[in-house]
Give the backbone structure.
Amino acid sequence: MNAVISKEEFKRSVESKIQRMFGRSLGRAKKSHLYKGIAMVVRDLINERWAYSREAFHEEAHREAFYLSMEFLTGRTLGNNLMNLGLEPVVREVCEELGVELDEIREMEPDAGLGNGGLGRLAACFMDSLTTLGLPGHGCGIRYEYGLFKQKIIDGYQIEMPDPWLEDGSIWEVAVPEEAEIVKFGGWVETTKVGDRIHYEQKGCQTVRAVPYEIPVVGYGSELVNSLRLWAARSTKHLDMGLFGQGRYMDALEEKELAEVISKVLYPEDNHPEGKALRLKQQYFFTSASIQSIVHTFKRRGGNMRDFAKRTVIHINDTHPALAIPELMRILLDEDGMDWDEAWEISRNTFAYTNHTILEEALEKWPVELFQSQLPRLWDIVYEINEQFCGELWERYPGDWDKIASMAVIAENQVKMAHLCIVGSFSVNGVAQLHADILKKHVFRDFHEFYPHKVIGITNGVTFRRFLLKANPELADLISGRIGQEWITDSEQLKGLESAAADPEFNGALQAIRRRNKENLAQYILENNNIVVDPQSIFDVQIKRLHEYKRQLMNVLHIMHLYNELRDNPNWDMHPRTFIFAAKAAPGYRMAKLIIKLTHSVGQKINNDPRIKGKLKVVFLENYRVSLAEKIIPASDVSEQISTAGKEASGTGNMKFMLNGALTIGTLDGANVEILDAVGPEAIYIFGLTAEETNAYYGNGHYNPRDSISDDVRLQRVLDQLVNDSLNVGSTEVFRELHHGLLYAHGMADPYFVLKDFDSYAAAHAQINHDYQRPEIWWPKAVRNIANAGRFSSDRTINEYNERIWRLPHA
Ligand code: 26Q
């Protein structure tokens, strides 16, 4: 349902809000006051519905889902809430009367950057879809004081700056200190016998207070308001006045700081776990607080713990919240006094786990010593889980020690979190069909044999509200003008656009909208990078985390090759191209940072060379984040989805681009396979090795990258240019490591097949060049992409989770 409020009433509310909160009249309000005033009025409207939703949850005591995730990459909220509540037109007019643009007001809001990339953004899309579909599902995570670092580029190098996104306060959150929970770390377990029961108590531990902050989640046109509950770490002790009185101020502060550091900052590694004690503490901190609060609420509503799994499903977003499993066991055993088998039965029927990665090095493992010392009681429980599981394995595979060791939860002095999740959940899913196949055939092969129906595939999706309706309103209008508005919540309706592919008028309208979006992005590029780009050129875009497997390097090497061609042959009828990149590299990831530097050096060289007559431009937009993606995607012609086949679990950016009518150049990896299936081979540019082929090479060690260049002078030339200072960086050594990694690296050179796939990548690009120059070929393909994007809506994904895993009632 839309909120009904007149322009006059809304304006009056904003005026009085600004007066009461900031002691200012509208005339004296700065833009930031206007943002806050408007956001607060919107929040008040949401709060009314939130109260109703809570009542309903409380009274009906139906089944609910909890989505546990270390990351929620929400981005900005005001614009999204206005759209979902149907308030945008009213507020736009109010802004006009106040002499500002709504867009300027929206830009005042900092992004909530509480995530690294795909996994975190998926959690945010899921919250949107759950609520829009009227399903009772809540998010549980960490209220990081600092989100993902802000990226500055200085002399082509990435510099990380803190992201104090809460500095000016957040309008959307409400602290609920009344519902704080206590989380215990370290110490030891004391067992005492009470009657015929053993009583466990964690002694000598550090206690931390977890304070929840709740953010309302508003769906598109729905009554329901779900909650995102983010936990902040607080000290359980007040300042030690004894120390303070002795003048030892720093010592007095230290205890407090030590507790609060837990929710201080998001770890910036994506797909690369580091075994840091603080990371383990973060994981236990938020999972323990979440499980305790879920149980407490359940009991407060009169629930019997024996019915817990019937009324609760807890979803684990990758292994990061895996400690939720032994934590629930701890509560059932130690606090509710259940016996092991009963507790295990309930626990196993409560949890479901999603795997997001195939990269072997990204599977989380914790050293036994760290686990034991930080989480002594959970260690006991995980140890017992492992004992029982190994017992089951022994019955099934008597004597097969290798198999049992490779499947154990504890082995090689490590706790294997993925194994814990598989054993402790009733459902395990991959995030695209290819990904699920790889899990079943390779990564979790033995588990798939042992639990034949547990591993399933549910393909990711994205919210069409944020990434089309809001990010590209003109295109949304064009679509609605043709097929009506149902597509916004019934994504398969987009199929109705199929006929528009053959309609020159529709094609022309799409082209004109793209053109305006490109002009806007060109303006942004001019303001931020001081580079002039031609909106007539092909905007060819790769925006995502920087990772070797995602192969930004291959893209850059190909650009160097195009540049060589243009210089050799200035009359080549290449359609002008603008290559756009945006990517953050993990701060400690040297190769990734070097690739950012290379992109800049190549850009410097190409953008300033008059000989190529502006036909080629390279732009790196700094500080990639959700709000920047919303600006770039609607202006994109070509979507680069070029990961080494078998490495990208799904990808979700690929879906956002196709939804906006960009054509994909991509490998047969992740969800690209399903995009190909949806649009047909004519409307996508597929190239490169298949996952089976890359796998075979990894297995037999027969790949030699030097073979790939021996008969390819183009590649030889590009590789030479990396180390002969053609890029004018003043040294032949700056990019030596990249060169070495591609050709000579010990272990395996070019492990991501950049050189092997180069030729077919270049051929696919040549085809794009050909097709783009023929609008009657290009734009029908673009329309076909939009028309077939329906299955990549996160609404479809959530419906599938609900049918196959959660089984929640609709509100
Ligand atoms: C773990 C431990 C310690 C530090 C960091 C981490 C960590 C953090 C983030 C490990 C992994 C991640 C993120 C993984 C991720 O984003 N995976 C992506 O998930 C998307 C949604 O399913 C997929 O579309 C992508 O293919 C996948 O790479």
Observations:
- The chain has 33 helices and 25 strands.
- The chain has a mean pLDDT of 96.
